[in-house]
Structure formats: structure tokens, C-alpha cells
């Protein structure tokens, strides 16, 4: 069942600027934040055009180009600064139940001096935890603290998944020389695929956070800027870790190819040795088995056993020869 109303409202909060917050409804949203140091946060679900008129597009007072960016289908992390606010698009790994580890969903923010409007496409566990913290009385005091806190929560979720991915790569490196290749190949492909997908979205997030920290606004304190840069630095480390996982997966794949080639060479060597051993024996038995006159030993009752012993001795001799030249 959807957790938003027909206009896409997921939740809305009014912050008093002193660490307190309370939920608000549409009436208070339309009236706007009261005078003082506080601000409002309106969290919306992205809706399609079939829903018709919405507050965001018709009543929010936000520039149509920014509304279009907030409702864009698929965008990479970025930040754009304007005279009256800042647009920030971030991605977060979804740790909600039944979600895949490579699912990175976007959340877009329009930050003004007295209001923050965010738009999601799918729910994010980091946002849910952030709202739980607000309900427990741990509310941000400024818009800068709001963005910094939520950014750190998004980064923390990345840490969990990327650490698990690195551990999977460690395990694959240990198994590459012993496990069955048919069982190992899908795991290597999956690790490499997830690393590539995450890297594609995580890398631009650093630039977006650093760019937002340059916003020249009173509500962005030096402490908030430092936290945003810290989040950007962690994202950089994650991107480097994903590069490492991707490269390690490529090395593991190369080792698997070499191991498969070695197995094929070994099999071909055995087949060649069997051919070398049995080709002379087949020639001898073929000659001795011809149904013509003059075959040596054809009238001797012990002829069969003589040929058998001769073939056995020749086979043993060929095996010894192949061992001597290290074919076997």
C-alpha cells in the first residue's frame, strides 16, 4: 500500500531551528514556515502525469525548470547553485527488505532559506532512519545540518554494501584455485557487475557534495561544510574500493581462464599420449587380424597369446618412454 497521498506527500516536518521538529499537514505547508529561524521539509513521491495537478508543479512556487529536474526520470548525482537556493541530486543504496545491493535510488533536494523540498522515486532506508531520529528529538537546526546529516546516512549505507562486496572478492580469490569453475564463474560475474553499477553512480556523488559545500548561504555553517566534505571524501574512498573490487574480479576471471586453459591442455596431452600408445598397438593387431594367407603364427595354437604379450610389452615400453620424456 502506498505511503503517500494523492498529491505525493510522504511526510512533512517543521523545524524550529533549535533542535525540535513536528509533523505538519497540507494546510501548514501551504501557509509556509512561520517567522523565525525555522524551516519546513516537504518530502514527496515522484508521480507521473496521470495524477494531474500536484502541489509541486502548480502551487509550490518553485521555478518550472527546477521542478522538471526534481521529477526527472533518471539522473546522475549532481549539484546546481542558484541565487535563491540549491538543487542537489544524490543516490543511496537501498537496504529495504527484498532490495538488491546494487539498487541505487535517487533523492532530489531543492534547498531554500526557509524550505527544503525533496522528491524520491522509491523509498530509502536512510531517509526512514533520518525521520526516526527526528521523531526521537534529534532534529537538525539548519538546512546545512539537514543535508549534511542525511548525506552521511546515505554514505553509511554505502559502506555496508561495499565492505560486503570487498569480502566477497576476498573469498573468490581464495576459491579460484580450488573451486569448480562452473560454480565460481557466476559469482565473479555478479561481483564485477555490482561493482561497475555502484561505481557509475558513486563517483559523481563526490563532486555533487563538494559543489554543494561551496554554497554561500548563512544556513550552511563551517561545521556543515566540513561534514559534507567528509562525506565526499568517504565517497571517494568507496569509488577507489569499487575500482579495486572491479580490477580484482578481472584478475580472478583471468586466473579462471588460465586454469581452464591449463585443464584443457592437460586433457589434450592425455588424449595425445593415449593416441601415441594405442596407435602402434592398433596397427599391429590390425595387421595380425587380416584374413589372408601367410599371417605369422596363424597355425600356431599359442599365436594369439604371443601377439597379446607382444602388444602388452610394446604398450609398457611406450608408457615408460612417455614418462621418460615427461609427457605423463
Report the portion of residues in β strands.
Answer: 5-15%
The largest beta-sheet arranges its strands as 2-1-3-7-6-5-4
Largest sheet: 7 strands, mixed
Question: Under the CATH scheme, which architecture of the largest domain would be assigned?
Answer: 2-Layer Sandwich
Question: Share of helix among residues?
Answer: 55-70%
Total individual domains: 2
Helix segment count? Answer: 8
Report the end-to-end length measured between terminal Cα atoms: 68 Å
What overall geometry do the principal axes of the alpha carbons give? Answer: rod-shaped
- Helix-strand string: EEHEHHEEEEHHHHH
The CATH class name of the largest domain reads Alpha Beta
Count of β-strands: 7
Question: Care to give the gist of this entry?
Answer:
This protein has helices at 26-31, 55-58, 64-70, 125-135, 143-175, 181-213, 222-288, 303-324; strands at residues 9-15, 21-23, 39-45, 78-82, 85-93, 104-111, 115-120. By secondary structure, it is α+β, with helices and mostly antiparallel strands.
List the helices and strands and how they pair.
Blueprint lengths: L8 E7 L5 E3 L2 H6 L7 E7 L9 H4 L5 H7 L7 E5 L2 E9 L10 E8 L3 E6 L4 H11 L7 H33 L5 H33 L8 H67 L14 H22 L4
Parallel strand pairs: 3-7
Antiparallel strand pairs: 1-2, 1-3, 4-5, 5-6, 6-7
Task: Write up this protein.
The structure is a single chain. The protein has 328 residues and is an alpha+beta fold. The mean pLDDT is 82. It folds into two domains: 9-258, 2-Layer Sandwich (Beta Polymerase, domain 2); 266-324, Methane Monooxygenase Hydroxylase, Chain G, domain 1. Strand 4 and strand 5 form a beta hairpin. The protein is rod-shaped and about 120 Å long. The protein has helices at residues 26-31, 55-58, 64-70, 125-135, 143-175, 181-213, 222-288, 303-324; strands spanning 9-15, 21-23, 39-45, 78-82, 85-93, 104-111, 115-120. Strands 2-1-3-7-6-5-4 form a seven-stranded mixed beta sheet, sandwiched between helices. It is a multi-pass membrane protein. GO terms for molecular function: cobalt ion binding; cobalt ion transmembrane transporter activity; magnesium ion binding; magnesium ion transmembrane transporter activity. Belongs to the CorA metal ion transporter (MIT) (TC 1.A.35) family.
Amino acid at each position: 500500500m502506498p505511503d503517500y497521498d494523492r498529491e505525493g506527500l510522504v511526510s512533512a516536518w517543521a523545524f524550529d531551528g533549535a533542535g525540535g521538529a513536528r509533523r505538519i499537514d497540507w494546510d501548514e505547508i501551504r501557509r509556509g514556515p512561520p517567522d523565525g529561524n525555522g524551516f519546513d521539509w516537504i518530502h514527496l513521491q515522484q508521480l507521473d502525469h496521470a495524477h494531474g495537478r500536484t502541489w509541486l508543479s502548480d502551487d509550490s512556487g518553485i521555478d518550472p525548470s527546477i521542478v522538471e529536474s526534481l521529477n526527472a526520470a533518471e539522473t546522475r548525482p549532481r549539484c546546481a547553485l542558484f541565487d535563491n537556493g540549491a538543487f542537489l541530486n544524490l543516490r543511496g543504496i537501498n537496504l529495504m527488505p527484498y532490495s538488491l545491493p546494487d539498487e541505487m535510488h535517487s533523492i532530489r533536494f531543492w534547498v531554500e532559506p526557509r524550505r527544503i523540498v525533496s522528491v524520491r522515486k522509491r523509498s530509502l532506508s536512510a531517509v526512514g532512519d533520518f525521520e526516526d531520529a527526528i521523531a526521537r528529538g534529534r532534529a537538525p537546526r539548519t538546512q546545512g545540518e539537514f543535508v549534511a546529516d542525511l548525506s552521511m546516512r546515505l554514505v553509511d549505507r554505502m559502506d555496508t554494501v561495499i565492505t560486503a562486496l570487498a569480502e566477497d572478492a576476498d573469498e573468490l580469490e581464495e576459491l579460484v584455485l580450488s573451486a569448480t569453475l562452473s560454480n565460481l564463474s557466476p559469482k565473479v560475474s555478479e561481483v564485477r557487475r555490482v561493482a561497475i553499477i555502484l561505481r557509475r553512480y558513486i563517483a559523481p556523488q563526490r563532486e555533487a557534495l563538494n559543489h554543494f559545500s561551496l554554497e554561500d548561504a548563512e544556513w550552511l555553517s563551517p561545521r556543515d561544510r566540513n561534514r559534507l566534505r567528509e562525506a565526499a571524501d568517504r565517497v571517494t574512498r568507496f569509488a577507489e574500493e569499487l575500482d579495486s573490487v572491479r580490477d580484482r574480479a578481472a584478475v580472478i576471471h583471468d586466473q579462471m581462464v588460465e586454469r581452464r586453459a591449463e585443464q584443457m591442455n592437460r586433457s589434450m596431452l592425455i588424449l595425445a599420449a593415449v593416441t601415441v600408445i594405442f596407435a602402434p598397438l592398433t596397427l599391429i593387431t590390425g595387421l595380425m587380424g587380416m584374413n589372408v594367407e601367410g599371417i605369422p603364427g596363424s597355425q600356431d595354437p599359442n599365436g594369439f597369446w604371443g601377439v597379446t604379450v607382444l602388444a602388452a610389452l610394446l604398450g609398457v615400453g611406450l608408457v615408460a618412454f612417455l614418462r621418460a620424456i615427461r609427457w605423463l
